[in-house]
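Here is one chain, start to finish.
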Amino acid sequence: MPAPDDLTCRELVELVTDYLEGALSGRDRARFEAHLLDCDGCPLYLEQMRRTIRAVGALTEQGMPQAAKDDLLRRFGDWKRVRAGPPVPGR
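Its structure:
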């Protein structure tokens, strides 16, 4: 049975960016690394995130063509509208 202070896989996923950026507190970093020792899937997930960051690390907003930026913003806006559902009268 996990201890109350043990990190879950879901929590690890939420913290992975802070971990990779060195932004976790000492306590959270220790919990994160302890979870990696006891989990079969999370070390693989962490490695996939590292590879993804290396692969796209050279991409910058300034290097992106304006048409691609516009397309991404439009798609994100469409996605947000679909997720929000129809407008509620009086809101």
